[in-house]
Amino acid sequence: MSNAKTFFRPSKYLRPSDLAEAVKLLAEYGEKARLIAGGTDVLVEKDSKVEVLIDVMGLGLDYIETDDHGVRIGAATTFAEIEASPALGKSPYNILAQAAHQIGTPQIRNLATIGGNICSAVPSADSAPPLLTLDATVSISGSAGERSMEVSDFFLDARKNALERDELLTEIQLPVFPARTEAVFVKKGRVAAADLATVNVAVRLTMSADGICQDVRIALGAVAPTPVRAKVAESMLQGKKPQDELLEKVAEQASKEIKPISDVRGSAEYRQILSHVLVERALKEAVARLSG
Amino acid sequence: MVSIMLNVNGEEYDITVAPYYTLCDVLRDRLGFTEVKKGCGSGECGACTVLVDGKAVNSCLTLAVRANGRQITTVKGLSKDGKLHPLQKKFIEHGAIQCGYCTPGMILAAKALLDSHPHPSEQEVRMAISGNLCRCTGYQQIVEAIMAAAAET
Fold it and tell me: Is residue A5 part of a domain?
């Protein structure tokens, strides 16, 4: 009945109704189990080693809530929900909505979740650079209890995240930001929709009243085994006025803090040049928004 | 095997499926809804698009067990008592159908758009169908048909 070339044949589909049950099932089935959220990675990978599917969409992890500490997003929230959320409408949170809008296709966005995107830990994950620029933290639940970490510590290597076998990602937290903060996301693929990024870039700038960059974040994806921050480039802009000449130098520095490879989406050399161009574009856009 | 109930175009079907069956395969091969087309099987072409509780999704990326109890709409569900939906009529009138393979998915993606944005701009239409590939028409007639259908509803 299905495509006979790949033998994705899990024998069990389980849908736990609370987190404790999900953790228990993960611990019980170990290597045989695979979590499934939107299914847009699991059903494309069609891994024949998967024997048990554990559905995380029934755990109530589908929410976007604002409080005094910032915004909390449940790991099972779809990108369509993120795209449309009023809670993520104002800057700098709107960078997430901007990135969500460029992921996949409208159909994929109705299925794919932010937790699934983060846990895939693919170098090109579009939600990752925005989360890095927003100093996001993530919460994890497992047999040993709950823990949290900065999202930058969650990506260990290409397709390798920091979860233990019996753990799942439950929530992403975004802090509050001062006024005069703007964040911009730029993605370039081979085509405008339904493509992985050749390079994706996120920047966040917080400006003081007298036009100095108080806080700078520059993050890039698809140019290293994990999404990365260009920290030297950031320090060049920190405490300075964002003149065009300086922004150009900062962008050039950012394009030196990456380790791109050549693949079907672009050569390493092209990615280097593209990173330079996109960081400059994103910085200038952020500055324009702050001045306007 | 898992017992599920699928509500397709308003009618309920009780079936048993393996956990790994996709909604696309079950709709086509088990229930005979062959108007749901299978193109790439990996969520890139949109030919398999159906509405699940009103939302456009790739049925090739949806497990049948996941669709248990949900309302599924295929393109046949748009016509009522033999009367074509404005989208179907306009696709015919505007030459938006050549080989027809992308058409069911394309119309449903458009339906999902019009349900939430009854008067979309051309840019919004193009965004809404950005997950549906057409090899024949070059999209222009499709966009015009959707805009014309929007004007009528």
Answer: no
Residue holding tokens 């280097």? A272
Number of independent structural domains in chain A: 3
pTM of the model: 0.96
Coil, strand or helix at B42: coil
Number of separate domains in chain B: 2
Residues spanned by the domain of A23: 12-55
Q: Bridge partners of A139?
A: A148, A171
Is the ipTM beyond the 0.95 threshold? Answer: yes
**Domain that includes residue B139, residue range:** 78-152
User: Mean pLDDT in runs of 10 for chain B (153 residues)?
Assistant: 97 97 98 98 97 98 97 97 96 98 98 97 98 98 98 89
Q: Decide if A193 and B29 are in contact by the 8 Å CB cutoff.
A: no
The verdict on whether omega for the bond into residue A92 sits within 30 degrees of 0, i.e. cis, is yes
User: In chain B, which residues touch A (CB < 8 A)?
Assistant: 2, 18-22, 25, 29-30, 41-44, 46, 49, 55-58, 60-63, 65-66, 109, 112, 127-128, 130-132
Q: Distance between CA atoms of A63 and B3, rounded to whole angstroms? A: 29
The reply to whether B36 and B82 lie within a common domain is: no
State the count of interchain CB pairs (< 8 A) between A and B.
84
Q: Are residues B65 and B99 in the same domain?
A: no
